[in-house]
Specification:
594 residues; mainly alpha; Clc chloride channel; CBS-domain; 3 domains; four-stranded mixed sheet; 6 strands; elongated; ion channel; chloride; Chloride channel protein, CIC family; ion transport; chloride channel activity
């Protein structure tokens, strides 16, 4: 059967190379990727909604008190799947994609195609306070990566197809094709050229058409703007930008803080139990934290904060507007906590939609405070709810353009374009100047594996240290005599540098040919002088597995050396020469800019 399959594929390859140009084939693949990513997004939503509907109708559980149990049940199911079927540690969806683009040439394990379709609905459907956008993007990326491998697409085009998949998934979920394209550019650091623009556009259109085909006219936000922007409200939008920036910084710091808090719990079972109970308590106190939170946002948009808050232990005081404001502010505070706890406990999901929930609550709180301050001001609560979402997206994701166009598209117009720009830009500027990297990118940046719009940085990130290590250097031992070194190493070497290592291969230093040149012909020293007397420190060291290529390049620049030794666990591996490094850099740069 495999032989027959290979014959069929070879015929397809031959026909394709003969009849379809590379450019046309990329356009065809981008449409296919958009459709498949859109279909994956729709599937994720439907499976999750089915689980939620089943629980709400009382097939399994029916009362708020059992919210304590639901998250533990969902996380347990995810744990069992990961342990016995997936058998690999779960990684953050978008971060793992960014890593595959920078260090794995866009190759993603085919298991990711179906894994997210299983574990994300189990997490969200049983109350996990995370989103489905990240898993949808990860599924689409895995589909596009493996489709690219199937048709022998090069790594650069495969990366473009992964960006197309993300555009298709986002376009399908939000029915916002322009924001989907911008997200791919901002988050995946894609160069926006005509070569990449058309495939992204085709994938985005395919994704939104898939959503229309399966979901009809059903949209996430059934809301039309009725109150336009007024110039007198400009200061309030500026203040909202500052507020969402502070909230974005809090969101990011809380994420890493809770992740670190769970690290001492080595056993996944303990993390599951502690995290599940914590989420259950939060859901009981604040029901809107359940799942993604789109119902909560929609209720705020139509002005029904009672329905948005749901049944809480504070229902007796809900008639007091300041109690409502306090509860909504509680959602702003605890959404980040609930989301991160879900992920730290072993759940699967994304951070994009929780960001929107938190932003909607904060925007609504700001509007309610302004309207009830007694100072005679009046602003649109629904508009502030929308613009609060944009402010959090811009700050948390470092994606201001995505925030602006997403909110503009899901509301069906550009009526709020000016306040969106004001709030999103202020939030982004403050957050970016406070926190260099996002939740997606921090770990990758620290390890030097992050692709950015900086071409020099991107090229260095794509380079591999293994490709520039040279090992054709003659090793010498510190106990060798000068005569032994000249006979066994210098006479047989084409290089002018000699690494000095001990019997355990531990690196001790280097000897340059210039160091021994004046002693080479003094035969009286051959037997009496040891190599150790000529050994000196290298100008610097390259630490394998720890130094990024950016660090390696910087070390050459700072030391002025032409060769630097590569050390792994204290032991000598080889040398990197400046000439070979620059040659490899130039080759990668040409490939990157083609």
């Amino acid at each position: 059967m495999p032989i027959q399959k290979n014959k069929i594929l070879r015929r397809i390859y031959k026909w394709r190379y003969k009849h379809i140009s590379q450019k046309t084939f990329i356009y065809i693949l981008s449409v296919a990727v958009g459709l498949l990513a859109g279909l994956a997004a729709v599937t994720l939503k439907n499976i999750t909604y089915f689980i939620e509907a089943s629980l709400e109708k009382g097939i399994i559980f029916s009362s708020n008190q059992l919210y304590f149990i639901l998250p533990i049940v969902g996380l347990t199911l995810v744990y069992l799947y990961v342990k016995y079927i997936h058998k690999e540690k779960l990684k953050h969806a978008v971060s793992s994609i960014l890593f595959s683009l920078s260090k794995n040439k866009g190759n993603i394990d085919i298991k990711q195609v179906y894994t997210q379709l299983i574990i994300a609905p189990l997490t969200v459907g049983f109350g996990g306070s995370v989103g489905l956008l990240g898993p949808a993007v990860a599924t689409g990326a895995a589909i596009s990566s493996n489709l690219g491998k199937l048709f022998h697409i090069n790594s650069k085009t495969r990366s473009l197809l992964i960006a197309c998949a993300s555009a298709g998934a986002i376009s399908s979920i939000f029915q916002s094709p322009i924001a989907a394209i911008i997200f791919a550019v901002e988050v995946f650091s894609l160069d926006l050229t005509m070569i990449s623009m058309l495939p992204l556009l085709l994938a985005s259109i395919s994704g939104v058409l898939t959503s229309y085909f399966f979901m009809g006219n059903e949209v996430l936000f059934n809301f039309t703007i009725t109150e336009s922007f007024e110039v007198k409200d400009t200061l309030f939008y500026v203040l909202l930008g500052v507020g969402t920036a502070v909230a974005s910084i809090y969101f990011t710091k809380m994420y890493f803080g809770i992740i670190n808090l769970f690290k001492p719990l080595k056993s996944p079972k303990y993390r599951l139990l502690v995290g599940g109970l914590a989420i259950g308590i939060m859901l009981y106190m604040i029901p809107p934290l359940y799942g993604e939170g789109f119902v909560f946002i929609n209720n705020l948009l139509i002005g029904d904060h009672i329905q948005a808050l749901g049944k809480t232990p504070f229902d007796a005081y809900i008639s007091n507007i300041w109690v409502v404001i306090a509860l909504l502010f509680g959602i702003t505070i605890f959404k980040a906590v609930a989301m991160t706890t879900t992920l730290a406990a072993g759940g699967a999901g994304g951070i994009f939609i929780p960001t929107m929930v938190m932003g909607s609550a904060l925007g609504n709180v700001a509007a309610k405070i302004i309207n009830n301050s007694g100072l005679g001001f009046s602003v649109s609560e629904s508009n502030f709810t929308l613009i609060g979402m944009a402010g959090l997206i811009a700050g948390v994701q470092h994606a201001p353009l995505t925030a602006i166009f997403l909110i503009a598209e899901i509301t069906g117009g550009y009526t709020l374009f000016v306040p969106l720009m004001i709030t999103a830009s202020i939030s982004y500027i403050i957050t970016k100047n406070t926190i260099d990297y996002t939740i997606y990118t921090r770990e990758l940046a620290e390890s030097g594996d992050l692709l950015t719009h900086n071409k020099d940085h991107a090229v260095l990130t794509l380079m591999e240290l293994d490709t520039v290590i040279e090992t054709n250097f003659k090793i010498v031992n510190p106990e060798m005599t000068l005569g032994e070194m000249l006979h066994d190493s210098v006479a047989k070497s084409t290089r002018n540098i000699f690494p000095v290592v001990d019997t355990n291969h531990k690196f001790l230093g280097i000897i340059l040919l210039d160091d021994i040149r004046e002693f080479m012909f003094d035969t009286k020293l051959y037997a009496t002088t040891k190599v150790d007397s000529f050994t000196h420190k290298a100008p610097d060291h390259i630490y394998y597995g720890r130094d990024s290529m950016q660090t390696v390049m910087q070390k050459f620049q700072d030391s002025g050396a032409w060769n630097l030794p590569v050390i792994k666990d204290g032991k000598y591996m080889g040398f990197v020469s400046k000439s070979k490094l620059l040659t490899a850099y130039r080759r990668e740069l040409i490939k990157f800019t083609k």
